[in-house]
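Researcher: Let's try something more involved. This one mixes different molecule types, so please make sure each is placed in the same coordinate frame as the others.
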Amino acid sequence: MEDTPKRSRTNSGNAFIRWLLIGFALVFLAVFLVTPLLTVFVEAFAKGWGAYKTAIVEPDALSSIYLTLMAAAVAVPVNTMFGIAAAWSITKFDFIGKNVLVTLLDLPFAVSPIISGLIFVLMFGAQGWIGPWLAEHDIRIIFAVPGIILATMFVTVPFVARELIPHMQAQGREEEEAALVLGATGLQTFFRVTLPNIRWSLMYGIILCTARAMGEFGAVAVVSGHIRGQTNTIPLHVEILYNEYNFVGAFAVASLLTLMAIVTLALKKFVEWKISE
Amino acid sequence: MSIEIQGVSKRFGTFEALKNVSLSVGDAELVALLGPSGSGKTTLLRIIAGLDTPDSGSILLNGEDATNRGAGDRGVGFVFQHYALFRHMTVMENVAFGLRIQPKNIRKSKEDIRDRVMTLLKLVQLDWVAKRYPTQLSGGQRQRIALARALAVEPKVLLLDEPFGALDARVRRELRTWLRRLHDEINVSCVFVTHDQEEALEVSDRVAILDAGRIEQVGTPQSVYDNPANPFVFSFLGNVNLFHGRVKEGKATIGDFEVDAPEHRNASDSPAVGYSRPHEMEISRERNGNDSLSVVILQIQAVGPNVKLRLKRTENEDVLEAEITREKLRELDLKTGEAVFVKPRLVRVFIADPSETPLNYQI
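Model: All components are placed in one shared frame. Result:
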């Protein structure tokens, strides 16, 4: 026991270098992470609680919050179901084209969000593939709520599946096979064996998916058309307010996203702890 | 319930896991599928269970074709090598699983299920761990719980895939004798897969020896050990010494000595290999007639009831193994490096197949 402190000193080398590195990391953290985070709240409350509240309950802001929540409310469940189905089929069955599916899953990560948005404009826009047909039937997708939901869904496709696949791969198929031999149906096997086993990685994937769905800017910006009170999500609304020099408004709405991010981080940490348990 | 495997073949990509395999297992019989890894024994077991489907051939359970029946409808219990217990359920919930998922109209009441589970846990002598999770159990305990879980739905056939493969030697030996007792008690047909020849010979009523997707021999442990059908079975069931020679009209000539090989009376001077077990080798200080081989002792390993000797033939550098009693070792007073003579008491002669690589299974 006695030589432990000595050894640790020799292992970590010069004390000066050690403190220099730690100091650098702390300064970096303060400058690039903590300060901006504080700035958001300082700016948001620059004119007091009243102005903050006004900026948030303003109809356009409320509409953007509502739209963001709605986009997430559609995108997250759909992607969760897709993610589970994709992970289940990839890890528990062998089929032709499996590798293609795995690769395609990453497409939204690989493509720039702006391009993702553009894909939908090119498909459903006035000059797009099925734009004229949509116009004929008076269906609006681009510059309307459906476009925003589609773009959000596209961007968040990989999150749940990516979380589940490694975990389900590590667990193998034996428990499912055991359930099948014991007479369980496919659904019983899924709900009683597979789902309980993956519940925490699933939560983790859903959290990441939700965070991205609410924070997505690029893809949504392309398809939104920035119609205030109609097709603005929170990130887009923040941008508009900022461009109009309404700093308190911009930061107040931004603080909502920031709070959401902090809650997400806390949840994520909790789930990580649960997984490791 | 009887199992009838008829001409089952299965390939995975280009790999032929099973080649036209047929085997029948009688009611309440315990059969071991024995073979090296990759011989297809686990695939065969999974096909019986319905976890894999054969490319051709059929599986009959109790005389009825079950080839297209799902795993859950075959009335089989399956015990996995790595237990496959449901990790998020307690031992009690694991064992109760098969009963709880039954359709409402045939499902037992909660009390009945609990009673049945406790009875099974008592049977596997683990009723005191009912509330624990699988991770809180030792390997041997987990395997017994897996067995109790499989038995809960009263299977007519019990299939075990290397059930003791992941356990240490002592627990393995215990569970082996325990499985045999259990089988005699509950009277279901059992098929179990193993690569351990000692396990297979000790526990089973009959052994089926597989190699490269084919069944090489089926028989009682004693009959396959005493009368191996071919060199593969011979060398897989224990250590062997090989003697290369020729066989002609019922007589095999190996080095300096001749052995009778009446089963090859029609052979006209073909290359042959003689096989002898280490305990069939006799060691002497003096040349004993002219059919002794002169050898040098390389190593003397005196662990356990018998003494193992590694010997090198002086004429061709072949290494032989011999097993003698401790008394014999003392009587002859053998030392490493000494030149002695050895004579196989028993040699089985097989005509050498030139296409086959020499077998050398040292287990």
